[in-house]
Amino acid sequence: MSAEVKPTRANKPFVFNAENEAKFQKLLTRYPDTAALNLPGLWLIQQQDGWISYEAMEYLAERINIPVTQVYEVATFYTMYNLQPVGKYHFQVCRTLSCELRGGEEILAHLTKKLGIKPGETSKDGRYTLTKVECLGSCGSGPMFQLNDDYHEWLTVEKVDEILAKLP
Predict the structure, then answer these.
(1) pLDDT tens-digit map of 29-61
(2) Mean pLDDT value of segment 74-79
(3) Three-class secondary structure assignment of the chain
(4) How many whole angstroms from its chain centre is CA 111?
(5) CA 100 to the chain's CA centroid
(6) Mean confidence (pLDDT) of the chain
(7) How far apart, in Å, are the Cα atoms of 141 and each of 74, 84, 101, 138, 144?
(8) Which strands sit side by side in the sheet containing 128-133, from one edge to the other?
(9) CA distance 49 to 44
(10) Which of 11, 49, 71, 136 is the most exposed place for a label (fewest CB within 10 A)?
(11) CA distances, 166 to each of 32, 120, 142, 144, 161 (Å)
């Protein structure tokens, strides 16, 4: 997790919707130890709301019978979990050495200029969020970023512009 990102309160209780409650019930049958549902439970929350609020962490902790600090530890360790609301298009730019050596900073600077936001920010219209993240596990094909759930590798400034032009 980026040091500057902290879990945010939504100031409303969280409850799984019917679809995710059914998925959660199915997961319960696969894991004899409910604590093992920490990762998939967080993922279900993020799929439902687009991010994970502190209230959602409390909800999950109660559902899987572990302390909320244990949920917090996992949620803040992995960059795949959004701890604040994100824009419709969430760009997560890998900042590890392999991507840096292959032009990652140039890609990040280009995105910063094109989107009009700095890393850690969301555009005022809620369309874009730009985040620098630790290794995304694509070291041989950097520089790269993750755009929502999709990886984009072997990036160049021109390829980034093509990706941006295709966004609806």
Answers:
(1) 999 899 999 999 999 999 999 999 999 999 999
(2) 90
(3) CCCCCCCCCCCCCCCCCHHHHHHHHHHHHHCCCHHHHHHHHHHHHHHHHCCCCHHHHHHHHHHHCCCHHHHHHHHHHCCCCCCCCCCCEEEEEECCHHHHHCCHHHHHHHHHHHHCCCCCEECCCCCEEEEEECCCCCHHHCCCEEECCEEECCCCHHHHHHHHHHCC
(4) 18
(5) 20
(6) 93
(7) 27, 29, 11, 6, 7
(8) 121-122, 128-133, 89-94, 145-147, 150-152
(9) 9
(10) 11
(11) 44, 23, 21, 17, 9
Sole residue written with tokens 């993922």: 43
Closest-CA residue to 7 (of 45, 64, 44, 33): 45
- Report yes or no: 12 and 85 within 8 Å, Cβ to Cβ: no
Contact 83, 50 (CB under 8 A): no
Residue given tokens 């910063």 in the structure block: 112
pLDDT at site 3: 43
Q: Which residue has the higher pLDDT, 12 or 2?
A: 12
Model pLDDT, residue 10 = 84
**Placement of tokens 């279900």 in the chain:** 44
Angle at 80 between CA 39 and CA 168, to 5 degrees: 130
> 99-136 pLDDT, tens per residue?
999 999 999 999 999 999 999 999 999 999 999 998 89
